[in-house]
Amino acid sequence: MLYFSRWKATAILLGTLLVCLFAVPNFLPDSVVDKWPKWAQRHVVLGLDLQGGSHILLEVDSNAVRREKVENLRDDVRRALRDAKIGYTGLTARGDAVEVRVREIADVPQALTKLRELSQPLGGILGGSGQRSVDVADQGNGVIRLTVTQAAMTERIRQSVEQSIQIIERRVNELGTVEPSIQRQGVDRILVQVPGLQDPSRLKDLLGKTAKLTFRLVDMNNSAADAAQTGRVPPDDELLYEGRGGQRTPILVEKRIMVSGEDLTDAQPGFDNRTSEPIVSFRFNTTGARRFAQTTQENVGRPFAIVLDNEVISAPVIREPILGGSGQISGNFTVESANDLAILLRAGALPAPLTIVEERTVGAGLGQDSIEKGKIAAYVGSGLVVVYILATYGMLGLFANIAVAVNVAMIFGILSLLNATLTLPGIAGIVLTVGMAVDANVLIYERMREEARSGRSAINAIDAGFARALATILDANITTLIAAVVLFFLGSGPVRGFALTLIIGIFTTVFTAFTLSRLIVAFWVRMTRPAAVPI
User: Fold this and answer.
1) Which of 23, 100, 292, 311 has the fewest Cβ atoms nearer than 10 Å?
2) What's the pLDDT tens digit per position in 274-292?
């Protein structure tokens, strides 16, 4: 057990040194690290509880998801009946259902067949139980009722939350923040934690906007002012407003969407060459470019409203066809608002509005206080362990302390390599790992002491101590590893931070206690040839 070939010893030392080197950037100024290659600029990211930042809990508007689901079903019913050339009337949405009356009773069987095609089996586990997305029922007298099932609603809400998490992550990353934590909580809530962001107002503005962008034509045949005064809006129009604050101008825009923001491929802030005002330049994909070109060709001279979240940003007049698939949005932007709008458009529109349920701001001072207390706890705990091991095991205790120090360095090296986020519970995990590493060495040394008492020679006792302690060390660490893995996959936030450092610490502990310590002891034995075990 104490024999190491030259190549094996070299591999152990070089591997240990390489992992420890990844921890070096954490202890150097950013001005020095920034000059290094990108692959070497890895460091541990401090969590929200250590460097402060913003904590926001968002809730997806489930009612809006339900309304959208029913509206989409109504549009599907309209399209299906029109494609089948079946006359209908009274197409209305009520609650979670859509009702339609077929004009000719003789057409009801054909209408039922066509509308049942809209009901799809739900995928995944639910699909095996035979549940479908829509229940279609004949109410008599030509009335057909289509009801969105509860299972379909639940699945749609789940999809909306998952899609929202992806969009929120893109929006937050565009801010240039480091390692935001975005995770689902419960059925319809999303937790956003952004370390280092002390002013959450801009973050709330970005997260609170649905960012649903549409391009629609302005109705020039009806008066928007009259519609605003009387409340009578033409059935094919929608009354929206342009401008903010007290100067809001009513505009009648057509409900029909000519081009959707979903067809955008890029959006960038910039400045107008003529007026030097901030603008947002955008570019469409192939489908969007074709629709945009066709719309501008057919409507030269008409105002074209750019609508974001039911608010008209601007309504410029189409002077000439725009065939290049790109354009720009202007509307009294500031530099920051233009940049924020570009971020929103690049990230995409949320599937449903989000409301802020809870918000907290953790001050940098509180985070620094946590760091200082964590350092004190780590220093005191480690110091006591070092003194105890030295006093109990002498020279071998010194070897154990070296292995423990390397163990901690390797933990920070691996965390840096992963760009992991270190939280206060994570520091607790590292401190716990120190105790576990010492415990592994204690098992080995006590085995050595027992072997020496039984009459073995010093070298044989040392060799047997490592050999016979291995099974006990592995058993103890594997059981802890199982618990840590369960914590990591089932826990959230700080719990996962604790579990991550503990998992890494278990692997480094086994390596340093059984491999690195054994190598150090082997070197010492080879040089000194001890006559007795120095314990």
Assistant:
1) 311
2) 788 888 888 888 888 888 8
